[in-house]
Amino acid sequence: MKKIIFMALLGFALNTAYGGIEWKYRELSIEAQSGQNSVDAVFPFTITGVESVGIISTKSSNPNLTIEPVSGELKPGTEGELKVHYMLQKGVIGTIAGSITVETTDSQNPSIELNLMVYLPLTYRIDPKYAFWNLGADPDAKDIYFVDITGKGYKPVAIYSTSVNFKATLIPPEGKATRYIIRIKPVSTDVAGAAQVFVDVDMGDGTIEKRSILTAIRDPHDPKIKMISR
Questions:
Q1: What is the CATH number assigned to the segment(s) 24-120?
Q2: Cβ-defined contacts of 194-197 (< 8 Å, 24+)
Q3: What is the chain's Cα-based Rg?
Q4: Which residues of the chain are in CATH 2.60.40.10 domains?
Q5: Which residues face 148 on adjacent strands?
Q6: Which of 67, 145, 157, 195 allows an S-S link to 58, with CB 3.0 to 4.6 Å?
Q7: What is d(CA 45, CA 98) in angstroms, rounded to the nearest whole number?
Q8: Which CATH number is associated with domain 124-218?
Q9: How far apart (Å, rounded) are the C-alpha atoms in residues 131 and 185?
Q10: What gap in Å lies between CA 50 and CA 71, rounded to an integer?
């Protein structure tokens, strides 16, 4: 029994002595604010062993997630940070996840994975995000609704179509209503093709965010949709 206890204590001592690199946390969540183009995050670490450790390489799972390299020999007791930078894409909402694989000279943990989650809150909703008509159908107008989820005053201020075949009209709320109507009507449904209707959204801080609505005349016998250039 004493031998077992001694071996356990010896193992604990060795793990402490050669602990290598210890990360404060391996998962990090950040909430982005409206209008942000990017977010920065850090993963703190400490060299807890008696030997120096080097970070050999870092690899990101997401092309929008970049990593600032940590170079040089990290001596015992060194405290440092792995800094990461995430570029946000316009129009994306919800939770975005990215992972970082870190290769080090730590003999006990030569490869570890760090995880970053960026939460982009929903500020407004455009529903639906498309308007389709079948080839040869009546060119009736379809309504798309813009709703400010937060009540902070987000609103569409301009709309325009990339094709003369699709006419878009912005109708402001009436009375106590809070939703805007984006009314889209095709001039003709005789030829299949698609276009974008762009919406300029006033974010209330002097910035304009652009969103798009896909519009198309679809041929039921041909699943491919060709974009109309004019």
A1: 2.60.40.10
A2: 194/225, 194/226, 194/227, 194/228, 195/161, 195/162, 195/163, 195/165, 195/166, 195/227, 195/228, 196/161, 196/162, 197/131, 197/159, 197/160, 197/161, 197/162, 197/166, 197/168
A3: 27
A4: 24-120, 124-218
A5: 124
A6: 67
A7: 19
A8: 2.60.40.10
A9: 9
A10: 19
Residues sharing a CB contact under 8 Å with residue 111, sequence separation 6 or more, in sequence order: 101, 102, 103, 104
- Binned average pLDDT, 10 residues per bin, the chain of 230 residues: 36 46 92 80 92 92 91 91 88 80 91 91 87 95 92 89 95 84 95 94 85 92 75
Structure tokens at 173: 């709320």
Beta carbons of 74 and 46 less than 8 angstroms apart? no
Q: What is the Cα–Cα distance from 129 to 55, expressed in whole angstroms?
A: 45
For the record, the structure tokens of 145 come out as 């609704």
Residue 185 to residue 133: CA distance in whole angstroms: 10
